[in-house]
Amino acid sequence: MTKLTFPEIRCGVVVLTSALLGAQAQAQSLTVSSWVPPTHFVHTDFLVPFAQQVAEVTEGRVTLNILPAPLGGPAQHWELARNGIADITWGNFTYEPERFIPMWFAEFPNAGIKAEAQSVALWRAYEEFLSDNPVFAGVKMLGLGLFGGGQLHHGARAITTPAEITNQKFRMGGPIQERMLTALGAVPVAAPATRAYEMLESGVIDGSLHPVESVMNFRLEGVLTHHTIFPNGFYDATFFVAMNEARWNRLSEADRTAIEGIIGETLSAAWGRNFDVQHPLAVERLTAAGNSFVDASDELIGTVNAIYDDMVADWIVAAQSAGVADPQALLSFYNTTYASLAGE
């Protein structure tokens, strides 16, 4: 049996140690801050599968650590990613309205009710018109999404006509919703969706704006019992999944390439598919709980459409000031792409 000399042993140890250090250097654990509870479908059906996909495509070299509690409130999650406090976050552009004027076009009435088609259309519009806008600097955009049409919900009675909205206090999340409610004679009250229950319970508001799924998933079915449905959505909200750009650049080229295959349009579509599953499920459960659904009247839809026309005209001016070269082309591109994807 051949004996190894000390230099040979030392050389072998150095080689093994170098290999282990190299493997450790390649391994990356990325922190993810999420502001919904771990029982929410965005966590269980979107973030967890995404984390599994990242680990799979990078052969375990990159893993996502979804934190048990958020590192800030919903409105802070863009900055958490941009500043690198968290590596990856998701959130709602609506919570920083004056900052993200370029995204308003997708939050207008009639933006659609098929979330997967909406989300893919939004991603394509972003790539075509917005990816180099300075407002998005500092992050690697992983995905974008919409939620399939927000609707009007009330705690005491059905709302079908403009007259029935007058003086009613509604929670809302952004300037698009605020302008619509004000123009309809309602009283808008700004607050994130996570505060809706306590505000309804305390009588601060009479109703709240949500997609139908949120009434179920934020457990509002007992305090929001009447649901007014607009055929193409009363409003929408734009969402992001973003990663700190410097952290992204520190990943190996091989891992960045692997992850590119599961983000962008692919991740945006996955976002939308989850909402498309949740909406009909929510309608079924809310109906079984005794809640009522009514269609908005032609009068109410016509009033909202007139408000929409004014909003678009004003947004075009604001978007140009915010660095969008051709806002009308952006809006038309989104609408055409959505209609094509939705089969309309």
UniProtKB/TrEMBL annotation:
Question: What top-level branch of life does the organism fall under?
Answer: Bacteria
Q: Which UniProt keywords apply?
A: Periplasm, Signal
Gene Ontology biological process terms in this record: transmembrane transport
The reply to whether Signal figures as a keyword in the UniProt entry is: yes
GO terms for cellular component: periplasmic space
The family database entries (InterPro entries) matched by this protein are listed as: DctP_fam (IPR018389), TRAP_DctP_sf (IPR038404)
Signal sequence, renumbered to the chain: 1-27
Q: Where in the cell is it found?
A: Periplasm
Provide the protein name: TRAP-type C4-dicarboxylate transport system substrate-binding protein
